[in-house]
Amino acid sequence: TRLTADLKRAIDNHEFEVYYQPIIDLHHNKACGAEALVRWHSPTRGLVPPNDFIPLAEDSGMIIEIGHQILHQACMQTYDQIQKGHWPTDFLLHVNLSVCQLLQTGFLAQLETVLAETKLPAKNLTLEVTESRLVTQPLLTTQILKEIQSLGIHIAIDDFGTGYSSLAYLNQLPFNSLKIDRSFINQMMVTENYSAIVTAVISIAHNFQADTVAEGVETAEQATKLKQLGCRYAQGFYYAQPKPMSEWSTETVNKS
Ligand code: G
Ligand code: G
Ligand code: MN
Ligand code: NA
After folding, report:
1. Domains in the chain, start-ordered, CATH in brackets?
2. Which ligand is located closest to the Cα atom of residue 50?
3. What's the whole-model pTM score?
4. Using CB atoms within 10 A as the burial measure, which of 8, 59, 79, 87 is most buried?
5. Which of 18, 21, 23, 213 to mutate to test the pocket of ligand 2 (most atoms within 8 A of CB)?
């Protein structure tokens, strides 16, 4: 198709740009990390959001090369920000990973190469994987995630609570943080049931010595509630939209 051809050209021409959305430490009300969210600058289509091309990239296998470019760009820019003193030395860069990237042969070597080339320490990198995508190959993905952790890279489970995986499976899965899906955060103020779900996720994470990141925080009331429930980290439009590195500068988020 036309989209496939355009996407191929986009890879050759490096048309992808990483945007960053701050992740706020609710204890200090400042950014302690950021999630990398890719955008495609297409010469004919304009700025294309990931939902419009990541699925095709996954089906066609192009996600392998696109994912590599994204990871490289994000690690390079993060190292640069830390070097310049704009971001703290313990800043956590979150990069989304498709399961097909995880399962490609030589992925571990690719990770090590990217870190070596960009000089970003492994401890500054968190890879986000979507829970519902892992269950297709549970044993293999668990094994690979453990190997990734052994490099010093952290694992976050994205969209947690929306998939069909069991809590028994979670017990097998290596992870350093759970990202609470924004549908729960959204409903939390409306329905007591959702507030109970958020409380349960935070409790599960604590039992696994893992952190929780609330996604899609849009109001001060949600932020206050999350603090009361003991959630440590949050991201969402209340704090900031995803934005290109050129718009980040040294600005910090200050909201209580
Ligand atoms: O930024 P936006 O809200 O449009 O992102 C939509 C979805 O696209 C998110 O759920 C996110 O997981 C996915 N996504 C964004 N950037 C990347 C990326 O670099 N790699 C992969 N695999 N998915 C991404
Ligand atoms: O699936 P993933 O969690 O990676 O998705 C991140 C997506 O969520 C991005 O597309 C980003 O633009 C979007 N997003 C970030 N903050 C908010 C928010 O506060 N509200 C909503 N509705 N979407 C958000
Ligand atoms: Mn994510
Ligand atoms: Na998510």
Report:
1. 2-179+241-247 (3.20.20.450)
2. 1
3. 0.96
4. 87
5. 21
